[in-house]
Design brief:
157 residues, alpha+beta, Elongation Factor Tu (Ef-tu), domain 3, 2 domains, 7-stranded antiparallel sheet, 6 helices, elongated
């Protein structure tokens, strides 16, 4: 359901924001307190999150890209159109090639696949954040030892 409102852009700390009317927020379902939305500011499309504020309505932070796209400025009143964004964001982390090579080399693919899906995802996620080849290799070696010892909770670091 699409909601329309006008609000004056104000500065809070170093950020620009608008307060979303409570009547609109009541029709939306928060997820862990936050409400993911997609909308428009003076016709310029954006995807953003409504942030809960203690003893105040939900707040929509307006960034520079939104300000320029909506051709508005601090202190001006802008027209907003928002709707709840129900698309599920699932981050997928691919298996690093070096991990696949090491699993094949040590014949531990079956042992790795015995780990729970969430445990495998945690391993892939951790490895995706590592920068140097040396660090990746060191962590994969730790994992190989754990898999070889058939640890049920194999993990890195």
């Amino acid at each position: 359901m699409t909601h329309h409102f006008k609000a004056k852009i104000y500065k809070i700390g170093i950020n620009w924001a608008v307060d979303v009317p409570a009547s609109i927020v009541q029709e939306m379902i928060p997820e862990k307190g936050y409400i993911r939305i997609k909308g428009q500011i003076n016709g310029f499309e954006f995807i953003q999150t409504l942030v809960p504020v203690k003893n105040a309505p939900y707040r929509l932070f307006v960034n520079l890209i939104m300000m320029k796209g909506g051709k508005t400025a601090l202190g001006e009143t802008a027209a907003f159109t928002i709707a709840q964004n129900h698309t599920i964001v699932e981050q997928i982390y691919p298996m690093p090639a070096i991990l696949d090579q090491e699993l094949t080399k040590h014949q531990l693919h079956d042992q790795f696949n015995l780990l729970s899906a969430s445990r495998r995802k945690d391993v892939f996620k951790y490895l995706s954040y590592l920068k140097t080849e040396e660090t990746i290799k060191k962590n994969i070696d730790k994992l190989m030892v754990q898999l070889h010892n058939k640890d049920k909770n194999a993990r890195i670091p």
